[in-house]
Amino acid sequence: DDCAVLAVVAPRIPFREGEAKEIRRYLDRGGRLLVFAPVGGPEFSAADDPLNALLFELGGSYRDDVIEDRQHNDDSLALAIQGKIRGGGESAARMVFPLARSIRDNPRSAEDGWSCERMVETYPSAMAADMPDGRMREGPFTLLYRSARETDNREARAAVFSSGRMVSDADIGRGQNEDLAVAMTQWLAGREESRDIEPREWVDRRLKLTGPQLRAVLWLSLVAWPLAWMMAGVTVWW
Q1: What are phi and psi of 10, to 5 degrees?
Q2: What is the pLDDT of residue 197?
Q3: DSSP state letters, 86-132
Q4: Torsion angle of the four alpha carbons 89, 79, 118, 171, in this order, in degrees rounded to the nearest 10
Q5: How far is residue 76 CA from its own chain's centroid?
Q6: Which long-range contacts (CB under 8 A, 24 or more apart) does 122-127 make?
Q7: pTM of the full predicted structure?
Q8: Position 204 confidence tier, pLDDT thresholds 50, 70, 90
Q9: Residue 191's pLDDT is what?
Q10: Which site among 76, 83, 170, 200 is 20 to 30 Å from 107 CA-CA?
Q11: Is the per-residue pLDDT at 211 higher than 90?
């Protein structure tokens, strides 16, 4: 009950059915879920995988593939694809999704009460290669979606990212990854207003001294004040 946001970040072993049921019960009580794509083999993308099945109910599940983009990427790495805000043009904010999986959209999630918004997508030049057979599919693909549903306690929320590497130490500084991750976490925690507070402008408060002023400060600190304390000590001793 005291959990503000439950984060599942790049799991390396599959979830058990009981664990997925606990997460589902948590969401039914108005929980907030943040998921970054798992790292590992195709077991995470199988239709009967408990975690992936739960995510499909929310709005979309992971496919067993990897996305590459030879036109829109970071550091000329085809697997470090760039994503953009859905509906934005070439000047839209860009994020980097290394080793991203495509998300299989579930348009019927609304039947379960989930209101799903596809927020970030690839450029049309992206291609997804299926891991089992290498078959290529053309983009664009969904890279991030968020969902919300009303419950008896409060609004349940979920945010699902297609890359588990984008918030690693090596990759969170790429593009606007950090801003996107922080914004989604704040939305999940119900603190959207904190994103609108602009930082205060930096004010240069350095003291600018002329040559004579600097010499006066040096004489005062290195000669005058030590000499005054020595004279005061001699006077007290006398």
Answers
A1: 45, 60
A2: 46
A3: TT--TTS-EEEEETPPPEEE-GGGGGGT-EEEEEEEE-TT-EEEETT
A4: -90
A5: 22
A6: 122/67, 122/69, 122/72, 122/81, 122/82, 122/83, 122/84, 123/69, 123/71, 123/72, 123/82, 123/84, 125/69, 125/70, 125/71, 125/72, 126/67, 126/68, 126/69, 126/72, 126/81, 127/67, 127/68, 127/69
A7: 0.74
A8: low
A9: 81
A10: 83
A11: no
More confident residue, 206 or 58: 58
At 73 the three-state DSSP class reads strand
Do 54 and 23 meet the contact criterion of CB atoms below 8 Å apart? yes
Chain segment 33-60, per-residue pLDDT in tens: 999 988 765 555 565 678 888 999 999 8
Nearest-CA neighbor of 51 among 100, 9, 93? 9
DSSP per-residue codes, 124-174: TT-EEEETTT--EEES--EEEEEEEEE-SSSEEEEEEES-SSTTSTTTTTS
CA 117, CA 146: separation in Å to the nearest integer? 5
Tokens of 142: 């969904």
